[in-house]
Write a structure and sequence with these properties.
alpha+beta; six-stranded antiparallel sheet
Length: 558
C-alpha cells in the first residue's frame, strides 16, 4: 500500500496503525460498572485491553494519553476478564469463560466458545508482554492457564476439519508445551498432520468461511510462536499449514475482498467485506475503514504469506479463472462427503464466482455466488448478488438462501434460475452496491467504482434503500437473473465511454427467458459467447451450455 507521502508501508507499519487505532478507542471508551468495556462478547474486552497495553508499553509510539494510566486501565480490564473464568474443578465447562455478559458479568454462565481462541491468544500475550505485567495479573494469568489445561476442552478428535478442530489442535500443541505434556503434544502433532493432509488433498470444508478462517490463522500462528524452536518437525509442519492457508486466501483475494462462495458469513461479511484486518496487515493494498467489527489479534500476531501467494494476490492485471473442488464433510454424518465445485473469475477491478452446488451449511449461511469489488475503506456493500430467501432469513439481512436456485458461471457473467414451487414465497432479493444506477422495466445498468454492471431480470422489480446497499425485490418467480460486469478500462478499449454509452451497447445483449415447461435463460455476452441454462423440473439436473457445448467441471482440482 502506498502512503500519502509515497513511502510504501510494511506489515509492521500496518500493525502499528491497528494497535494505535484500537488503543485510542479503548482509552477513550468509558468502562461500565462491571469494570469492562463490553458485555456483548467477553473476548472483546481481552482484545481491547491487549491493544491498549501493547501501545502503552511501546516507547516507539507517540500517544496522546498517559502511558501509565493506560497500562493500568488495560491491566484492570484484563484482571476482571480473567476473573470471569469458571475456576471450579468438576463443574460443567470448568476452565471456560462466559460469552455474553449481561446483565451481571460475574453471574454469567460459562460458554464453550471463548476459550477456543482466547486461551491460545492469552498464552501468546503472556509470552510477549508477561514481563511488563504487574505481579497480581501474572499470577492470575498463569493460574488461568492451569484451569484451561485441566479443562481438557481440546481433547477431541479431528473429524470435520473445521475451525473448532483447528483451534483444538493448536491448543493441544500450546498447552502440551506449556505443561510439558508430551502425550498431548504428540496428539496435537498428529492432528495437525491429519488436518493438513486433508485440506491439501480435499480442500477446506469451510470454504470462504469468515471470520472462522482467521481463527485458523491466529491459532496456528500462536502455536508457531509457542512451541519449542528445536522441534524442527513441528515447526516445519506449522509453517506448511500457514503457507497453505495463506495460499488459499490469496487465490480468492481482491484488494481486501473475499471472492466467490462462502460456506458461512456474518452480517459484517455479507454484503460487505468488513473483517479485513488480517488482509490489511498481510497485503496492505486497500484503504482501511475506521470500522473494525472484529479486532482479534491482527495487530499483534503475524506470519508472512509465501512470496508466490502475495504476488498472485496483488497482481490481477491479467484476469484469472480459479476452479476448485472441495470435499464437504457433513457433521451429522462424517461418512457423507459431497464434492463441491467452486468457480471464480478475478480481474483487477472486480471478481465473479460462486459454488455450482447448493449445500446445507451451519445456520444456512451459504453465500452461493457474488460479484465482488475491491474494499474501498468507506464501508457499505462491495458485493452484488441475488438469491431466494430461505430458512433463517430476516428482512434487511441478505443471507440465508433457499435451495431454489440453479447457476451458470462463465467469466464475467452469472446466470441464475429460480425454480420456486407453488406454496413458497415467490420473491427473490438482490443486493446492489451504492453507485450510479439506471433503471429499465426489466433491467438495471450501473457503474460502481471502475465497473459497469448490466442486470437483466425476467420480471419487474422494486428498489429499496438499505444501510450500506440497495435492495432489489423481484416478485412473480419462477424466473431468472443474468448479471454481466465489465471494467471501465476494458469498456473504454472497446470505445464505450460512460454509463450512457454502456447502456446503449448492452441493449444489443438482451437475453431470453423461458418460463413455460420448465425454466431457461439464453444470453450472448459482450464477448460474443452464447450461454444457456435450463431445467425441466427441480428433480432433473440443469443444463449449462457454453456455445452449444455442455460446461464440464471435470478439470476442477483441489
Amino acid at each position: 500500500m502506498l502512503e500519502s507521502n509515497g513511502i510504501q508501508s510494511t506489515y509492521q507499519d500496518r500493525q502499528q496503525e491497528i494497535i494505535i487505532s484500537i488503543a485510542l478507542e479503548a482509552q477513550r471508551r468509558p468502562l461500565l460498572e462491571s469494570g469492562l468495556w463490553f458485555h456483548d462478547d467477553v473476548r472483546n474486552n481481552f482484545y481491547y485491553a491487549s491493544y491498549l497495553f501493547a501501545a502503552a508499553v511501546d516507547d516507539s509510539l507517540s500517544l496522546p494519553f498517559n502511558r501509565e494510566a493506560a497500562k493500568q486501565k488495560a491491566q484492570d480490564v484484563l484482571l476482571e476478564t480473567l476473573m470471569l473464568q469458571n475456576r471450579q474443578p468438576g463443574t460443567e465447562l470448568y476452565g471456560h469463560w462466559p460469552l455474553g455478559l449481561n446483565p451481571v458479568p460475574r453471574e454469567a454462565s460459562p460458554h464453550e466458545l471463548p476459550v477456543e481462541i482466547m486461551g491460545s491468544l492469552m498464552a501468546y500475550f503472556c509470552k510477549r508482554y508477561g514481563g511488563a505485567l504487574n505481579a497480581q495479573l501474572r499470577i492470575v494469568l498463569n493460574t488461568a492457564f492451569g484451569h484451561i489445561y485441566r479443562s481438557d476442552f481440546y481433547r477431541k478428535p479431528v473429524i470435520t476439519f473445521g475451525h473448532h478442530e483447528a483451534k483444538y489442535t493448536a491448543a493441544k500443541l500450546i498447552f502440551g508445551t506449556m505443561f510439558a505434556d508430551d502425550v498431548l503434544v504428540e496428539d496435537g502433532r498428529q492432528s495437525l498432520k491429519d488436518t493438513l493432509t486433508y485440506i491439501r488433498s480435499k480442500g477446506m470444508p469451510e470454504y470462504g468461511s469468515l471470520p472462522w478462517f482467521w481463527h485458523w490463522i491466529q491459532a496456528f500462528t500462536c502455536a508457531l510462536e509457542l512451541v519449542p524452536t528445536e522441534d524442527t518437525d513441528l515447526i516445519t509442519t506449522l509453517k506448511d499449514m500457514l503457507d497453505h492457508l495463506w495460499k488459499v486466501r490469496a487465490e480468492f483475494y481482491l484488494h481486501g475482498a473475499w471472492v466467490g462462495a462462502h460456506s458461512r458469513g456474518w452480517p459484517h461479511d455479507v454484503p460487505g467485506d468488513a473483517n479485513v484486518l488480517h488482509d490489511y496487515v498481510q497485503f496492505g493494498d486497500f484503504k482501511l475503514s475506521e470500522a473494525m467489527p472484529r479486532t482479534e489479534y491482527a495487530g499483534l500476531l503475524f506470519y508472512k504469506a509465501p512470496d508466490e501467494a502475495l504476488t498472485a494476490a496483488m497482481n490481477r492485471r491479467t484476469p484469472v479463472e480459479t476452479t476448485k473442488i472441495t470435499q464437504k464433510v457433513v457433521p451429522a454424518d462424517p461418512n457423507t462427503q459431497p464434492l463441491l465445485h467452486s468457480y471464480a473469475y478475478i480481474t483487477e477491478d472486480f471478481a465473479a464466482g460462486g459454488m455450482w452446488e447448493r449445500v446445507e451449511e451451519f445456520d444456512n449461511e451459504q453465500l452461493r455466488w457474488t460479484f465482488s469489488l475491491p474494499v474501498n475503506g468507506e464501508g457499505g456493500s462491495n458485493q452484488l448478488f441475488f438469491f431466494h430467501p430461505g430458512q433463517g432469513y430476516n428482512e434487511g439481512d441478505p443471507r440465508h438462501q433457499s435451495r431454489y436456485m440453479e447457476v451458470l458461471y462463465h467469466k464475467n457473467v452469472v446466470i441464475s434460475l429460480f425454480p420456486i414451487p407453488q406454496g413458497e414465497k415467490n420473491t427473490i432479493i438482490g443486493v446492489l452496491p451504492h453507485g450510479e444506477w439506471m433503471q429499465d422495466p426489466n433491467a438495471l445498468f450501473g457503474q460502481v467504482g471502475d465497473v459497469y454492471f448490466a442486470i437483466y431480470l425476467s420480471q419487474s422489480y422494486q428498489l429499496q434503500e438499505r444501510p450500506g446497499y440497495i435492495e432489489v425485490t423481484v416478485q412473480g418467480m419462477p424466473g431468472g437473473v443474468i448479471v454481466e460486469a465489465i471494467g471501465v478500462k476494458e469498456s473504454a478499449e472497446r470505445g464505450i465511454i460512460g454509463l450512457d454509452a454502456f447502456v446503449i451497447a448492452m441493449a444489443h445483449n438482451e437475453p431470453q427467458f423461458e418460463m413455460e415447461g420448465g425454466l431457461a435463460a439464453h444470453y450472448t455476452t459482450s464477448n460474443g459467447d452464447r450461454l444457456h441454462l435450463s431445467m425441466k423440473s427441480e428433480s432433473e439436473q440443469p443444463r449449462a451450455l457454453l456455445n452449444g457445448v455442455k460446461i464440464s467441471l471435470e478439470n476442477y482440482t483441489v
